[in-house]
Design brief:
This protein has about 170 residues and is an alpha+beta fold. Helices cover about 25% and strands about 35% of the residues. Helix 1 packs across helix 2.
C-alpha cells in the first residue's frame, strides 16, 4: 500500500469511494445526493494551507481510501484543521487502511504543518474504531446526544475528539 497526497486526478475515484460509503447505515454523515461533482472539486481544489488530504492506493494504483481535514476560513481558527474524514472503500475496510492513513496524516501534520495546533474529528460515539483514535493520541472533548441522523432514520450520539500537534509554532 502506498500513501500519497491527494491530487486533482483522483477526483472521480474519491467521489466513487464517497458514494459507496455514503450508502452504509453508519458510514459518513454526507448523503449520496450531497456528494456532487462540485463538492469533490471544491474539496480537492482547496489551497494547500487550507487542507491536508492523503490517499492510500494498492499496488495497481487503485484508491483504497482517503483522509482529509480542512480549515474553516476564519482567522481566529487558523490553528485548527477540523472535519477529519476517513473514507475507506467497503472491500478494503478492516484491512488496516484507515489506521495507516490516520498515522500518516498525524505524521504529516507534525512534520510539515507547524501552523496546525488542533486536529478535530467528530465520530459516532458507539463505533468500535474509536480506540484507534485514543491510541493515536486523540482525547475526547465532548459528546452530543442524538446529533447524527443515520440513513435508516435512527439517531446516534456524536463524540468530538482532538489531537494536538506537538510541533505547533504560534
Amino acid at each position: 500500500m502506498k500513501i500519497r497526497k491527494t491530487q486533482n486526478i483522483d477526483r472521480s475515484h474519491v467521489a466513487e469511494i464517497y458514494r459507496s460509503v455514503s450508502q452504509e447505515t453508519e458510514g459518513i454523515p454526507r448523503r449520496l445526493h450531497e456528494i456532487t461533482e462540485t463538492y469533490i472539486f471544491s474539496l480537492l481544489n482547496k489551497k494547500e494551507d487550507e487542507i491536508v488530504s492523503l490517499v492510500a492506493e494498492d499496488e495497481e494504483g487503485k484508491l483504497l481510501g482517503v483522509i482529509h481535514a480542512t480549515k474553516n476560513g476564519l482567522e481566529s481558527y487558523t490553528h485548527i484543521l477540523s472535519d477529519l474524514t476517513i473514507i475507506i472503500r467497503p472491500e478494503a475496510q478492516g484491512k488496516g487502511v484507515a489506521k495507516a492513513l490516520g498515522y500518516h496524516v498525524l505524521n504529516y501534520i507534525r512534520d510539515h504543518r507547524p501552523d496546525v495546533w488542533r486536529l478535530e474529528v467528530e465520530a459516532i460515539s458507539k463505533l468500535d474504531h474509536l480506540d484507534i483514535f485514543y491510541a493515536a493520541g486523540f482525547v475526547k472533548e465532548g459528546e452530543i446526544k442524538n446529533r447524527i441522523r443515520n440513513i435508516d432514520g435512527s439517531f446516534s450520539d456524536s463524540v468530538l475528539l482532538v489531537w494536538f500537534n506537538p510541533n505547533f509554532k504560534a
